[in-house]
């Protein structure tokens, strides 16, 4: 049975003499997209910028509601996503949770983007 | 009338002797988040990787459906988002639309991420 063959060949001939290919696998693309999705929110960007800029190295969740102008449940929701995606680590101190930057986390995203851009951007 | 004062002062004393601050403005955070959101999809990551890796410099939309295993309306939808976010440029050649990388677009995201990370990551 070779009935379908000519159709496929014609498609390729029409506009893909050298069919383009992705420089990253579908699985890797899904991972990169998930990491970027964790970052792709204004409140999470601001949370990261506050925590990465902190001189103390760790910021109490109680200090994050006021600069963002958001309630604690909302802030905690965003922090949970950033911890799950590997950008922040969480430590309990008494009543409060403290959040610290994970070293190298933003650099990993930069490296992911370079791999999307291909050898010229690596 | 100074009734509310003591409460605010107490809040600050409890856990923000030096209130943390964001290294980027709310407006800038919204812009960065929007750019990342345009990237944060597995199909769009693969489209970018194919188009950035192309030796021809421009890829026909007709060549993008097969490697992604998606229909042309879906591929066109994703391409539109990538053009709007400044990652790709679009050119009509006869029947087909061709898409090219916008030089420096991925580097701008890297630079945005560095600004989120603060001076230590800049």
TrEMBL record, chains A, B:
Transmembrane segments: none annotated. CDD domains: HTH_ARSR. The keyword Coiled coil does not apply. The keyword Nucleotidyltransferase does not apply. Residues 24-121 form the HTH arsR-type domain. Signal peptide: none annotated. One of its GO terms (molecular function) is DNA-binding transcription factor activity. Keywords: DNA-binding, Transcription, Transcription regulation. This is ArsR family transcriptional regulator. It comes from Lysinibacter cavernae.
